[in-house]
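This follows on from our talk about sequence and fold. Can you supply me with one protein entry, sequence and fold together? Could you add the entry underneath, on a fresh line?
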Amino acid sequence: MRRAVLAMLLGGTAVAATLPSQPILSGGCCPGAVWTPDSKALLFLDGPPARASTAIYTLPAGGGTVTRRFSSVAFYSPALKWAVRPGSGDATTLERLADNRRFTLPTRGADVVWNRAETKVAYARSATTGNFDRRVTQIYVADVFGSPKSVATVYGGGPSAWLSDRLLLVSGKTTAGARDRALFTLDVQTGARRTLRTALGFRGVQVSPDGQQVVYTVSFDSQARNGLWLQSTAGTAPRRLPDFGAYLWRDARRLLLIPLRTDGSPHVLRQLNLQSNAWTTLGDLGDQVRQADWRVSPDGTRLSYLSARDGNVRVLRLP
């Protein structure tokens, strides 16, 4: 009875129809496929022998002809406005695709975090030796084509996302010897910080598309702290979600979750509506996602994943 009541509260996880999906690539192709900003196609890295050369290729979300999108292999910004190429030394080159204009930043190979308009970046520059938890890390921000400015110092952390053009979400320790990290917002103009949460560490930090919510996992900490948490970036109390697994934002008000199950059964897709605070089981995949390789299209209508069954990318429409 208790299990049945819990299932009702969670939206009926015991009953899940299989969601129809379509393989759009074959031959075990390809891990790491991402959506284009217009949600109409996917991009993926491939090369010989399947393709003539190593490049970034694209194909329609419904399947079809594969064409080469970028002949140069690089990290492309979410809006596909920039190509980012780390160098062999400190410098990373950022190239604006519209006019091929370039500038460099001394990121030491670190990822850059873009604001929504892709006019600003943030990155962390850490010491190259020593225990990561104790390494001093400088956080920098820069306007495109501008000079970087140091805005914070943390230990064992870095920037997670821009919440607005002046607010960064950051995690890290305040001193090398501290036990806990803080997850905090940072005003890059004034340096003001607002701590959202402290814990041994934060994993899977994901900000909602509107920057209003953040979801994260705490593990290897106390029982009271461990779990999957949802919190407003304005600083309200965190809320523990009643399940655990892989998660992605579908849009600003809906969070998708594939609960962790160890029985080898097909992965189930669940959805939390933040407005109604209601969980819904959308269905199962009839399959499993390989290596947590799944993406939601930017318009929130479709989902792609790498099939554990055959290693091919499949796409389904979300109900």
